[in-house]
Design brief:
By secondary structure, this protein is α/β, with parallel strands linked by helices. It folds into three domains: 57 residues, no CATH class; 253 residues, Type I PLP-dependent aspartate aminotransferase-like (Major domain) (Aspartate Aminotransferase, domain 2, 3-Layer(aba) Sandwich); 121 residues, Aspartate Aminotransferase, domain 1, CATH 3.90.1150.10. The protein is 35% helix and 10% strand. It is built from 15 helices and twelve strands. The strands form three sheets. A seven-stranded mixed sheet has the order 1-7-6-5-4-2-3, sandwiched between helices. A three-stranded antiparallel sheet has the order 10-12-11, covered by helices on one side. α7 links the parallel β2 and β3. The longest helix has 37 residues. It is globular and about 80 Å long. It binds pyridoxal-5'-phosphate (PLP). The site of pyridoxal-5'-phosphate (PLP) has 14 residues, from α6. InterPro entries: GcvPB (IPR023012), GDC-P_C (IPR049316), GDC-P_N (IPR049315), GDC_P (IPR020581), PyrdxlP-dep_Trfase (IPR015424), PyrdxlP-dep_Trfase_major (IPR015421), PyrdxlP-dep_Trfase_small (IPR015422).
């Protein structure tokens, strides 16, 4: 199949207006049947809360309101529109079968206060998903409660702390590589640990000699991402685990990058003691605005007594139930049992793929990242030539000579119909372009992406000013991202 290149423009199609500007008196998008009950005096009923003047409300027809909201929905980007190569985030397709299963009446209408006796199906889902994830990670036990990856990290370190306290020696430090995701040091600090930075070696991996010299009896754990945030597999992971264990420390694995490992290797087999999974990354549940997230934490036997309660257990009468009486537990970390709807989706994904399908998924994700790497090598600088797993990290070194940075290239990519890659992370790569296609993308879509990236590199040579002013096709161009997060404007007000 020959692909039609996506052409970028520098022109916005201004076919929209505010719904308030479309208003004209007397129009309505609704029609009610005649009143068949006695009319009430709303002033009497509502007192001071009664409002006769509804202010400046738009009056529009049904088709106008439908067009308005449908148009707004197209101003955002989604995995359902095209490739979403946001590195480290594993923005894979959310299969529709997951949605169908999660809407089954018995699951969608279940209530957390329902008696266990009539919750056996829901409990079976918690148990089966737990068993699958334990098998996939090679660990011994799991909690599904945490609501996201960062919350999983927090829960995991609470377990680490409880473990060391039970040994009578509360250690003070957590070691974290300089390539780590920002949530890792933030989590360690939140749990009350001091963070000690570990420098990466020239291949972008943990410097094992440096680790050996930094490891001592004051270190509670090493938080390690594998493959790390450069998309590189830490192949000395066994040595790393041995160094930690020899001095009584634990190995925490940030499992955000499990999309490179599922069905191939198991963290439990390479010495990991505790790890989180991101169901909204690896296990295809919606990510971002479509959430909520889910960050199960899997552990080895030594940490099992500290897991949050309640824990799903098989009772002596053959039914499933919740166990609350666990004296060493760190307690609850989330209301009820976690984000149940996500467990249904993740289990649907896992069972639909099966062991061979999950392995194939991993292989395709790695193949896709390497296809993009080959397509863009030479066009963009590759700071670490170490083999890539499920994502590849370039830098803007070549384009920076023209004054164009990773953020500018990412903004121009929007004009080509793609969501940007991850910019400026990991921190050990100045001007990083972090690209993760996931297994969801076809060769055709990746070819379009590679063409777009090559085309932008040419534009940088010929007309850097145009790239610096991108995006040109969006309703708003460059936003103040800090103000947008800190002081969001969520409501239109008449001026
Ligand atoms: C996404 C991510 C996290 C945090 O996970 P959330 O679910 O967003 O809280 C942590 N570490 C890495 C490497 C990640 O990519």
């Amino acid at each position: 199949m020959k692909h039609i290149p996506r052409k970028a423009t520098t022109h916005v199609n201004q076919n929209e207006g505010l719904i308030f500007e479309k208003s004209s008196a007397g129009k309505a998008a609704w029609r009610l049947p005649p009143l068949d009950v006695p009319e009430v005096d709303t002033a009497k009923l509502l007192g001071a809360a009664d409002r006769k003047d509804l202010g400046h409300m738009p009056e529009v027809s049904e088709i106008e309101i439908i067009r308005h909201f449908t148009r707004l929905s197209t101003w955002n980007y989604a995995i359902d529109l095209g490739m979403y190569p946001l590195g480290s985030c594993t923005m894979k397709y959310n299969p529709r079968v997951n949605e169908v299963v999660s809407r089954l009446d018995g699951l969608a209408n279940g209530h957390p206060y329902q008696p266990e006796k009539i919750s056996q199906g829901a409990l079976r889902i918690l148990k089966t998903l737990s068993d699958c994830l334990i098998e996939i990670t090679g660990m011994d036990a799991i909690t599904l409660q945490p609501a996201a990856g960062a919350h999983g990290e927090f829960t995991g370190l609470l377990l680490v702390r409880a473990y060391h306290q039970s040994k009578g020696h509360a250690r003070k430090k957590i070691l974290i590589p300089d390539s780590a995701h920002g949530t890792n040091p933030a989590t360690a600090a939140t749990v009350g640990y001091a963070v000690e930075n570990l420098k990466s070696n020239p291949q972008g991996m943990v410097d094992v000699a440096a680790l050996a010299s930094q490891m001592n009896e004051d270190v509670a754990a090493l938080m390690l991402t594998n493959p790390n945030t450069l998309g590189v597999f830490e192949h000395e992971i066994h040595k790393i685990a041995d160094i930690m264990h020899a001095k009584g420390g634990l190995l925490y694995m940030d499992g955000a990058n499990m999309n490179a490992l599922v069905g191939k290797v198991r963290p439990g087999d390479f010495g990991v003691d505790v790890m989180h999974l991101n169901l909204h990354k690896t296990f295809s549940t919606p990510h971002g605005g479509g959430g909520p997230g889910s960050g199960p934490v899997a552990v080895k036997k030594i940490l099992e007594p500290y897991l949050p309660t309640p824990v799903v257990i098989a009772k002596s009468d053959g039914t499933l139930g919740f166990e609350y009486d666990r004296p060493q537990s760190v307690g609850r970390v989330r209301a009820f049992y976690g984000n149940f709807g996500m467990f249904v989706r993740a289990l649907a994904y896992t069972l639909a793929n099966g062991p061979d399908g999950l392995r194939q998924t991993t292989e395709d994700a790695v193949l896709n990242a390497n296809y993009i790497r080959k397509g863009l090598e030479g066009v963009y600088d590759l700071p670490y030539p170490t083999p890539s797993m499920h994502e590849v990290v370039f830098s803007d070194k070549l384009q920076a000579k023209k004054g164009v940075k990773t953020m500018d290239i990412a903004k121009r990519l929007i004009d080509y119909g793609f969501h940007p890659y991850t910019t400026a992370f990991p921190l050990i790569v100045p001007g990083a372009l972090m690209i993760e296609p996931t297994e969801s993308e076809s060769k055709e879509e990746m070819d379009l992406f590679i063409d777009a990236m090559k085309s932008i590199a040419e534009e940088v040579e010929e007309d850097p000013e145009m790239v610096l002013a991108a995006p040109h096709t969006t309703r708003v161009s460059r936003l103040d991202e800090v103000a947008a997060a800190r002081k969001p404007v969520l409501r239109w007000k008449p001026s």
